[in-house]
Amino acid sequence: MSRRLSEGLVQEDGRVRCRACGHDLAQAGTPWKAAARLVERPMKGAGGKAYSAGAAVRLRQFCCPNCGALLDTETALAGDPFLDDVVGA
Amino acid sequence: MDPITFSIIRHRLFRVVEEAVITLKHVSGSAITNEGHDLMVSLYRADGSLLMGGVGFLHHLTSAAEACKAVIRRFSGRIEEGDVYLLNDPYTAALHTSDIYLIAPIHHEGRLVAWSACFVHVYDIGAMNPGGFSPESPDIYTEGFSSPGIRLVERGVLRQDVFDTLLNMVRSPEMVALDLRSMIACNNVAKDRMLALIHKYGVATVDEACAELIGQSERLLRKRLGELPDGTWRSRQFMDVKGEVHRVELAMTKAGDSLVFDFTGSSPQSRHAINCTQWASLGGLFAPLFPLLCYDITWNEGVIKPITMIAPEGTVVNCRRPAPVSVATVGAIQSVNNAACATIGKMLSASELYADEATAVWHANHFAIFMFGRNQRGGQSIGILTETFAGAGGARSFADGIDVGGEIPNPISRMANVETMEAAFPIRYLFRRRMIDSGGPGRHRGGAGCELAITPHDAPDGGLHYVVSGKGAEFPMSDGLNGGYPGAPNSYIWVHQDEAGGDNRDARFAKALDELPGRKEPVTWGVFPLMGKDALYVRWNGGGGYGDPLEREPARVAADVHANLVSAEAAQAVYGVVLQADGRVDEGATAERRKTLRRGRLLTEAAE
Fold first, then answer.
1. Are B19 and B43 within one domain?
2. Is the pTM of this model over 0.80?
């Protein structure tokens, strides 16, 4: 039984999985971002020339480590904890 | 009660508010009111609880309820038929001093049965800086006239002494007088129409319908919350003022049929006027909640009951007096709006049933520039660049965000025509157009923001000055959803004519900032001149994107490039779309490019 958690994540068999490839990321009802690939880059220029952000501002992209699907993004400064969303198990 | 009668009364209440809004717009002479729609009208029960929330800036609906309750407490036993009360103290209920509430009791046969309340951002409030936003104010004492509740009209007669005292403390008193009279007229219309409703159906029937309406809203929202998954969703907003970074942190938890917004972890209150009070934060979280969760539910007290807010005292979201708050509506309140919009969007997206109601964050950063000075007719002009209300839509699961598409907290916000602004101020627009690469990339792109440039024109004093409260030039604030990028941040540039020898007034065919001659200096906070041959360039944020940009249909990216909404460079670097010389998609190169970009994601380290 599959249950939607977000556009890119589903809950199946008590696990949080990538919707695109089924890769197992975490136990259901727990944070999953630590198991993702993190692409972190300067926000400045990230989306084109209009992204004139400050030098310290980062764009975080959390990707499926198996298929590379982009699952979530965050704006952050270095050292900020992840915005860990948890959908009830 | 009889469902037909209930339905008729419900719709009549909508019309009461709608007609009052029309009155407010028609009587007020301020562009911020009748062009930007920085206004609100709502109806309240006899105890001050919200009965029928109107359109306009929605963060006022709950604050005006608190204003009604504050007036009831202060004037207990002395509230008379025909009275009108004024309240604009942020530490009592208001959002900031320049958003004045006028609150009118509605009596039927001598008994208080309801309240009408409205606000406009008045032309001026006598703060350190003209127009209401006062970035140079260090405290509430320097943010202008502030009342925790005063009787402006007594038994239908204007208290001229009070009226004149207020006007004696503001710039352009004739315009502020018109603002106040527009609100008196608005409440009069609301009262007349409400009494007509009572005369037709009887006070007991209307009262029963109003009570049922509130009960209905609570039942419907609790049912909806019950249909959504339980969980905790987080969001973070940054505001930078003169190099100081402030945060609004939000953890929104849904359990069963209730919702808790917890702002623990937000920054301590600031010495800058971006702070807001607890009533303002409450209003701030309801502004996106009403349209996103209650799009088909009447906005009233019933919606408020399932919601709890935790806002630690002494922080930017619940500051202590005398912290300055004049910039709150575009400062901490807007960040609360944005954070709540982001977490509600994530919650909706976690539901199969409601996923298509989810949205990335819309226009998250008002630039709110107020200009002031002697105009081309010799009079004084004070007013906002109404483009701040033009906004940009966040992307949804099924569609791009709407370019220059408004904002979530105000469903009727809009901007004035260029000609209107040029008639009101001694300025000329060099350009005003959608901004390339401003909409957050995603499978569905965020709506584009805009850029504009103005110069002095026909100004008797050689130009004018402007107040800018530009937090957020360092940080994008319109968050993306489900992998979408945030929209591009704001930008404010003072283009000096001086040593570069350029003349921006002659740059009538300039199409972009790069084509404006002169030295370019970023400005973000304070009062600045726009004189002589200088120019002011402003860019406002795009909406957040939705989903993975590598999944966007290549043909849509090509169309965006053709429309000058996405650059060819961003198309390739962000969307992985390679275009041929004629602008058509190179299918093979695009497939290869996207494969390379995906592979690159897998080469990074694990996040832990």
1. yes
2. yes
